Amino acid sequence: MKNKRENIAEYVLYLWQIEDYLRAFPQQAEASQELHDLNEMMHREGILEGGHLRLALNALDEMEQLHQELLDENAQYRAMVMRLQPALNILKSKTDRPTMSDIEASLVLLYQIMMLRLQKREISPETGQVQQQATQLLQIISRAYYEDGKQEN
């Protein structure tokens, strides 16, 4: 399994991908112990049809906390979020959850782009630019999460 401490954003995206995979191919749950365990968690948490594992939701909460801290402490980060905000607002308005957080919207954006690429669909230059901005934002959060973990050890 992806290491949450090394890159929390990749960890969340990985869990989302595994959730979708197990929903599409439930028979593959026995392919490895990891898939079996995650499938069992999905079953226990009642998310076989939709939703996210508690592991992913907890990681998202941790990212949200760091996001708020960075907004309070870092003017450069705040400016980055402000540049990304219009694109995130458009994305949110096109979902069934227009009040989702900016961090969740950034992750949704990256996940959707990943799915489009797997389908060999073209990504517009504008979307590519927003992807780059969202990636930078999530990299900062992931780095801060990693650094916090190093200080705790």
Structure description:
- The protein has 153 residues and is an all-alpha fold.
- It has one domain (8-152).
- Helices cover 75% and strands 0% of the residues.
- The chain has helices at 8-24, 33-45, 54-73, 75-93, 102-118, 125-152.
- Helix 3 (54-73) packs across helix 4 (75-93) and helix 4 crosses helix 6.
- The longest helix has 28 residues, at 125-152.
- The radius of gyration is 16 Å and the shape is globular.
- The model has no long low-confidence stretch (mean pLDDT 95).
List the helices and strands and how they pair.
Elements: H1 8-24, H2 33-45, H3 54-73, H4 75-93, H5 102-118, H6 125-152
Structural class, please? mainly alpha
Count of spatially separate domains:
1
**Gyration radius, rounded:** 16 Å
**How much β-strand is present in the residues?**
under 5%
Largest sheet: none
Outline: globular
Determine the fraction of residues in helical runs and give it as a percent range.
over 70%
Distance between the termini: 21 Å
Oligomer: single chain
Instruction: Give the overall average pLDDT.
Output: 95
What string gives the helices and strands in order? HHHHHH
Number of helices: 6
Low-confidence stretches: none
